C-alpha cells in the first residue's frame, strides 16, 4: 500500500503535464486528433526501422555461422552490436505505442464529454456513432500493434542467448553449435516482420480514417 501513495502523486503529475501539453498545442491549432495521427505515423516509422534492424542482425548471424578463420572477437563484437541495436529498436517501438495510448485515451474521453454539449439530437447521435466506430478501429489497431510488439521478444531472446554463448565460447566449435540455431532465429524474425507489416498496413488505414 505504501508504494501506492508514492505512485499516485506521480500519476497525477504526469496527467497534469499531459493536460498542459494538450492545452498548449490546442492554442496553436494542433488538436488531440492531430497528435494521434502524428504518433501513429511515428509508430509506423519505428516499426519499419525495427524490421530493418532485425534483418541486419539476421545477416550478421548468417555471416557469423559462415566464419572460417579470422578475428572471432570482432565477429562477436559485431554480433553483440546488432543485438544491442535490436534491443533499442524494440524499446522505441514500445515507447511509440505507449504514446499512442496516452493521447488516444485523452481524445476519446474529451469526445465522450463533449457529446453532452450538443443541443441537436441528430448531430449528437451522428457524433456518438462516429466515436464508437473510431474507438473500435483504434482498439483493433492497438491489439495488432501490441501483437507485433510481442513478436520481437522471441527473436530478441534468441539473439541474446546466442550472443552470450559466443561471448563465453570464443572458439570455432561454438560456431558449429550456433549453426543449428539459425533457422529458429530466421523464423522468429520473419514472423515479427509479418506481424509488423500487418500493423503498419492497419495503421495506415486508421490514419486515413482520422484524416477524413
TrEMBL record:
Keyword Disulfide bond: no
A Pfam family it matches: DUF2959
Residues in coiled coil: 33-60
Keywords: Coiled coil, Signal
Secretion signal, residue range per the UniProt entry: 1-19
Domain of life: Bacteria
InterPro entries linked to this entry: DUF2959 (IPR021342)
Name of the protein in question: DNA repair ATPase
Organism: Alishewanella longhuensis
Upper taxonomic lineage: Bacteria, Pseudomonadati, Pseudomonadota, Gammaproteobacteria, Alteromonadales
